[in-house]
């Protein structure tokens, strides 16, 4: 593979990996924003629900106290004036009916709050609107649902759902006094996906209201008869304003409630419990801190015991007004904040983060593995190219020699000389044998790669075999002026293997020692027993190898580079063949070498037991 192709592949793969990383980052960031927005909406809804409950709780408690006071006052007046007995009875009955009517309203209010807490988009619709548009299928298409965004004090918008009609048609009056709500369903992109109708019982009991009205009429008539000139403050204000006395009394109660200090109107423990309950209903169970403000002064900065956290300056705070039903401005506000909000949202995104990281590591691993394979294949390709060049060079000499000898045989003068013909024939034969040996070595390596080479399993005395190989190499050693030192001291040298291939192993090792010499070659050959193994050591004082080459000499086709000089013949297959044969025969080989100091090979074989 060409260098430009490799660079192009790496560039494209890197670009694809960067693209995947960018897409994952964008997806995580967008998911975090959506989770954060949903978290803010849930917390604000919980705060609103808590504020409503606190206000209703105060009204109910004060109404009970007020009712007890009225009953006690009526009892005292009854003891003083017998003529007011009937009036007291009517008053008591009215108060009881009002209490029941209040209970009806409170039950309705609890259901309404649960409905609004359960569904974020709940819109109250008038009964005439339901009868006119929604109940009649042919006019349901006229119903229009819109989201109105109103900017708030913070960076967010308050969204209000408005239900209206696109066309005005004759109104059909309500047939009952039930309370109806439309539950609007939006998808994540605020698109309408559905709506449901939810019906609650009436806010008030008409029978109770009618009974109260009748009793009040009787009470007023009785009061005019028995105490025509006695009026309280509420009656006087009512007469001047043209209002009913009970209405004026409700206003007075509201004013009296508003006069109380805010710290006396709140119970911190109840506030905390209500907040925990509302947040838990929305799957938020993280620790939070509470602040209660009165107009401009902070009344309470309460850190929950299990949190014990400090509020960072950039922490998002959520607030809602307290007692919004008071006349005038709200007397205070309730604020909460989560010091570890980011950690909460990150935990909720854990199910997305882990698979994405796993996929990312998988892609990076595949990318790295692909690069390794590409460079490895490039290296193998280069080594095979060198092998072909070496093979061409090695085959060229015997082929040229055979060609020259063959052409000489064509000369009639040479043909007539029997001795010269015999000599040329011997040359041709020797070169053919040499060429055949080269081809046989290449074929043996091919068989090793294909796992088709068959090895015999017979008893071999390694000492005798090494001695025989050394003897056969003596002539070559003498030609270069070197010498062997043989010390085969191993007492147990019987191993199981293939004698021919064992001979080739040691022939290759000695052949390399002779090839890579620097003059005055000396090769030490010895054997010894180590445990259940026999170790044959072949050490020379040749040119040696650097550490970089030492790690590659057992690779196929690898030859230590010598520049443009080709004075050492070979294919780079010998040591690869040696290692593969020893591995198949349960042996192994190790090597130690220093540049310009020599090389030591150790062949380790298991002894036959």
UniProtKB/TrEMBL annotation:
SMART domains recorded: HATPase_c (SM00387), HisKA (SM00388)
Record InterPro entries: HATPase_C_sf (IPR036890), HATPase_dom (IPR003594), His_kinase_dom (IPR005467), HisK_dim/P_dom (IPR003661), HisK_dim/P_sf (IPR036097), Sensor_HK_Regulatory (IPR050736), Sig_transdc_His_kin-like_C (IPR004358)
Domain Histidine kinase per the UniProt entry, residue ranges: 390-609
Lineage: superkingdom: Bacteria
A GO molecular-function annotation: phosphorelay sensor kinase activity
Keyword list, A-Z: ATP-binding, Cell membrane, Coiled coil, Kinase, Membrane, Nucleotide-binding, Phosphoprotein, Transferase, Transmembrane, Transmembrane helix, Two-component regulatory system
Keyword Secreted: no
Places the protein is found: Cell membrane
Keyword Transmembrane helix set for record: yes
Pfam families found in the cross-reference section: HATPase_c, HisKA
Protein name: histidine kinase
Species this chain originates from: Sphingobacterium athyrii
């Amino acid at each position: 593979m060409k260098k430009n192709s490799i660079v192009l592949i790496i560039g494209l793969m890197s670009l694809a990996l960067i693209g995947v990383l960018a897409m994952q980052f964008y997806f995580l960031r967008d998911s975090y924003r959506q989770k954060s927005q949903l978290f803010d909406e849930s917390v604000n809804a919980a705060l609103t629900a808590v504020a409503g409950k606190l206000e209703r709780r105060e009204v109910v408690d004060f109404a009970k106290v007020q009712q007890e006071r009225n009953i006690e006052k009526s009892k005292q007046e009854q003891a003083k004036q017998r003529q007011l007995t009937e009036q007291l009875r009517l008053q008591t009955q009215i108060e009881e009916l009002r209490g029941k009517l209040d209970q009806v309203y409170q039950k309705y209010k609890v259901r309404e709050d649960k409905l609004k807490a359960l569904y974020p988009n709940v819109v109250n619709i008038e009964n005439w609107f339901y009868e006119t548009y929604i109940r009649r299928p042919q006019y349901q298409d006229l119903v229009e649902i819109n989201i109105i965004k109103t900017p708030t004090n913070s960076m967010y918008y308050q969204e209000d759902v408005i239900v209206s009609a696109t066309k005005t048609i004759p109104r059909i009056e309500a047939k009952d006094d039930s309370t109806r709500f439309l539950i609007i369903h939006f998808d994540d992109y605020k698109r309408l996906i559905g709506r449901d109708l939810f019906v609650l019982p009436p806010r008030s009991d008409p029978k109770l209201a009618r009974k109260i009205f009748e009793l009040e009429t009787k009470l007023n008539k009785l009061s005019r008869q028995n105490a025509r000139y006695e009026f309280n403050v509420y009656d006087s204000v009512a007469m001047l304003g043209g209002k009913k006395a009970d209405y004026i009394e409700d206003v007075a109660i509201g004013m009296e409630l508003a006069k109380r200090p805010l710290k006396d109107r709140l119970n911190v423990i109840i506030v905390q419990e209500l907040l925990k309950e509302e947040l838990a209903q929305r799957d938020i169970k993280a620790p939070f801190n509470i602040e209660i403000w009165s107009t401009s002064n902070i009344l309470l900065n309460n850190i929950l015991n299990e949190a014990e956290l400090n509020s960072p300056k950039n922490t998002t705070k959520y607030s809602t007004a307290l007692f919004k039903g008071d006349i005038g401005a709200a007397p205070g506000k309730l604020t909460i904040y989560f010091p570890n909000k980011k950690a909460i949202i990150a935990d909720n995104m854990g199910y997305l983060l882990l698979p994405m990281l796993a996929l990312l590591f998988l892609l990076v691993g595949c990318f790295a593995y692909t690069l390794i394979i590409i460079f490895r294949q490039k290296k193998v390709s280069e080594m095979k190219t060198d092998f072909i060049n070496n093979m061409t060079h090695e085959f060229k000499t015997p082929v040229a020699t055979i060609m020259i000898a063959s052409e000489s045989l064509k000369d009639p003068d040479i043909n007539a000389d029997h001795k010269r013909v015999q000599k040329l024939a011997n040359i041709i034969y020797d070169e053919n044998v040499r060429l055949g040996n080269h081809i046989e070595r290449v074929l043996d390596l091919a068989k090793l790669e294909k796992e088709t080479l068959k090895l015999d399993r017979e008893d071999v005395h390694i000492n005798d075999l090494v001695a025989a190989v050394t003897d056969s190499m003596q002539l070559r050693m003498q030609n270069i002026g070197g010498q062997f030192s043989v010390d085969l001291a191993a007492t147990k040298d019987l191993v199981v293997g293939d004698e021919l291939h064992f001979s080739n192993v040691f022939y290759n090792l000695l052949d390399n020692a002779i090839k890579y010499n620097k003059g005055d070659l000396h090769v030490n050959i010895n054997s010894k027993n180590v445990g259940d193994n026999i170790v044959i050591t072949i050490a020379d004082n040749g040119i040696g190898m650097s550490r970089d080459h030492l790690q590659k000499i057992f690779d196929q086709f690898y030859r230590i580079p010598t520049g443009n000089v080709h004075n050492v013949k070979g294919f780079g297959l010998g040591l690869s063949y040696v290692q593969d044969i020893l591995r198949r025969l349960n042996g192994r080989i190790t090597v130690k070498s220093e540049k310009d100091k020599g090389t030591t090979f150790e062949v380790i074989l298991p002894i036959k037991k």
